[in-house]
Amino acid sequence: MRLHRSCCWLVASLLLSLTPMVQAAGTLDKIKANRTIALGYRDSSIPFSYTGNDNQPWGYSVDLCTRVVAGIARQLGLEELQLLWVAVTPETRIAKLKSGEIDLECGSTTASLSRMQEVDFSLPIFVDGASYLSRRGAGIRRVEDLAGRRIAVAGGTTSERTLVAALAQHRVSAELVTVSDHQHGLAALLQGRADAYASDRALLIGLALDSGNQSDWTIGPETFSYEPYALMLRRNDADFRLAVNAVLARLSRNREIYEIHDRWFGHLAKPGARLDNLYYLNGLPE
Q1: 12 or 159, which is more confident?
Q2: What is the pLDDT of residue 108?
Q3: How many Å apart are CA 45 and CA 87, to the nearest integer?
Q4: d(C-alpha 34, C-alpha 168), whole Å
Q5: How far is it, in rounded angstroms, from Cα 149 to Cα 141?
Q6: How far apart are CA 181 and CA 85, in angstroms?
Q7: C-alpha to C-alpha distances, 10 to 3, 17, 18, 52, 227, nearest whole angstrom
Q8: Is the pLDDT of residue 30 over 90?
Q9: Distance (Å, rounded) from C-alpha 233 to C-alpha 228?
């Protein structure tokens, strides 16, 4: 009998300790109660997420997030849903998501297994790979030409890790210059503090196009990594993840995703085989 009572007390204690977790409101409940959703965006991840001349967020990922918000509003039966845009950086994006300052990150974040220890991700929205940008006059045509050079890279990014690995693989010794974001990486090139800037190819193309002097730049032919971008959200919130993925899947099924892609990348290129396959696989049935 004593053992029975002890077990019952233990079970009751466990249930009580779990009650706050069970009753904790999910992101959809929070959105419905506040009629507000907080979206994280990057200031200079052109053409994915950046601040336009009107000081408003623009870009491919921003477009996808606004479609997601519209879908969530319909799902919750809300006629109005306020969008609160919050600027994030590679160093702050995970912390702001975990703290609740943002509900969804709309940037150029690579979904990785190590990050999944802290956060969750939507279906992939893009696929890219790391490379490097340099001035055409610098004479950097291949990775071996980076030997003895200064390479700028944003701290806390997958590009930083893959660059170190790529240099080691090719036995190239170079000095890494850590910067806070892509615009600071470009500034380091323009100011002569770096000879190259390493990041994902699509972002490097965006920087070159935005510089106003596209012919001054060259991008390395190598691709150092596999970078599947996704929208970042909090862990352990299956209902919110499903709501986000439902919109992304619908955009792929009805091929609206191609219109969004063309808006931001049409002047560069059409989707390649990898991205085309990604869009196809994202078109999950209802």
Answers
A1: 159
A2: 93
A3: 12
A4: 50
A5: 13
A6: 18
A7: 10, 11, 12, 57, 47
A8: yes
A9: 15
Q: Which of 179, 215, 172, 173 is CA-nearest to residue 197?
A: 179
Strand partners, 58: 50
d(CA 139, CA 145): 8
Per-position b or e across 166-180, b if 16+ CB within 10 A of its CB: bbeeeebebeebebe
**Alpha-carbon distances, residue 211 vs 92, 98, 159, 241, 261 (angstroms):** 26, 34, 21, 36, 21
Tracing tokens 């219109």 back to the chain, one arrives at 259
Mean pLDDT of 106-132: 95
What per-residue confidence (pLDDT) applies to 156?
Answer: 84
- Mean pLDDT, rounded, of the chain: 89
pLDDT greater at residue 268 or residue 205: 205
Tens digits of residue pLDDT in 191-223: 999 999 999 888 888 888 777 777 889 988 888
pLDDT given at position 24: 53
3-class SS string, 172-239: CCCEEEEECCHHHHHHHHHCCCCCEEEEEHHHHHHHHHHCCCHHHEEECCCCCCCEEEEEEECCCCHH
| Number of C-beta neighbours around residue 253 at 10 A | 16
Q: How many Å apart are CA 33 and CA 232, to the nearest integer?
A: 22
Q: Who's near 245: CB < 8 A, 6+ residues apart? A: 122, 123, 284
Closest residue by Cα to residue 167 from 130, 204, 136: 130
| Alpha-carbon gap, residue 55 to 41, rounded angstroms | 12
> With contact defined as beta carbons under 8 Å apart, do 38 and 103 qualify?
yes
